[in-house]
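fyi for ur records
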Amino acid sequence: MHIESLALSGLRNLAAARLSFHSAGNLFYGVNGSGKTSLLEAIHLLAVGRSFRSHLVRPVISHAENKCLVQARVLSGASRHSLGVERQKAGGALLRVNGETVSSYAPVAAVLPIVLLDTQSLDLIHGGPETRRKYVDATLFHVEQNFLGVWRRYVRALKQRNAGLRRGIIDSDGVWLDELARAGDVLAESRASMVAQLGSRFGEIAAGLSPSLEGVELQVRRGWDSSMSLREALEKSVPSDRDRGFTQVGPHRADIRIRLGGRAASDNLSRGQSKLVLSALKLAQGKVLTELAATPPVCLVDDIVAELDQSHAERVCGLLADQGGQVFMTAVEQQSLRRFWPNEMFKMFHVEHGFIQAVTD
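which gave:
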């Protein structure tokens, strides 16, 4: 699967553009502020509906425009898909898949799986549990066909039960406890299985990047006392939930811990090790998607070569290329991209003052 072409307008400082891409490497260079990261942002916006640089849509849209538009043609196996997203400063969104308007991003994301590797993603290691849950859930979305339905069932039941708890309505609580327990058990089991699969690949990749990361592992905490079932934990928590007005146990309280030498990695990693662990996590995600979803994801790699020394940058780029998926990578200097990309399967682009131009030798 790869993006054949992309059209965009109204996005940050980028000039309107129509671009065609290589199925392997697409390398973008330019000084800071030139707009190269905005190109990755456009792909991310199309694939998941939001920027990786801001939780708000207004900063993503050019000052002089009221909306931005990103359209792509994607080749997946023998099938071609057209995708499009229009986001408005007022908050509206219009999504299209193969010319048909869709009401959620799920059909778009299903066509265009992506993995983002940038320095801001260090929250995956040092941030709160929600970021790590999203990392696992995003992988499950592309691997397990029924995952989204189960996740939606659990979230709906959780919202309904919490609303009842806030209003002091507990007479019908058993209905939501049943649904929470049923959907929660499936959700927790899916996450545990996925963490095991991500973890095995993560540990191998991390150790290959640096001997100091030998033995690093992922551990899942389900979000309730493991000595009891979820239904038992929910029932035991009823009095406290009633007092506090929300559900305190369940998969929504789960965490995926990164451990090294039996201790929390976030407390012991150096800055350099953190970047390597982050790279290994994202490479493991790409490997799982390639193996289990039978399609390599599109990898968006923002200036990571500037964050790693030469030997580690070469290893990360080599592993990215080996996965066989399409890569979009940025750097300040053209020479660094040529140095670290491991083969001749790429297309080079220069970005200057918001204009993106293919470079021909």
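The chain has a mean pLDDT of 92. thats all i got for now
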